[in-house]
Design brief:
Elements (H helix, E strand, L loop, with lengths): L1 H6 L7 E8 L2 E7 L5 E2 L6 E2 L2 E14 L2 E12 L9
Parallel strand pairs: 2-6
Antiparallel strand pairs: 1-2, 3-4, 5-6
The chain binds zinc ion.
Zinc ion binds next to loops.
């Protein structure tokens, strides 16, 4: 896991859940560790997780092998009752 962090520094700070190495490439399952996010509409910070979605980062290459990163991102809901979101 430390080797992955060294080779793919943009994955630092993520929780690596699985690394599967196949002949066609490498598949990395990771998740963000964000505990709060700021609402894009009103700017209020929220810690309420609304859901999760998986983002695929497929533009990563490692030593000629294709690396598929399946990144689970937390989605936060705005805590401000006045907010239109
Ligand atoms: Zn808001």
């Amino acid at each position: 896991m430390e080797i992955i962090s060294a080779l793919l520094p943009h994955l630092m700070g993520l929780r690596l859940e699985a690394v599967v190495v196949r002949a066609v490439g490498v598949r990395i399952t990771a998740a963000t560790q964000t505990v709060r996010a700021r609402c894009g509409a009103c700017g209020v910070w929220s810690t309420t997780v609304h859901g999760r979605y998986v983002r695929r980062l497929a533009d990563v290459r490692l030593g000629g092998h294709e690396v598929l990163v399946a990144l689970t991102v937390r989605r936060f809901t705005c805590a401000n009752a006045e907010c239109w979101r």
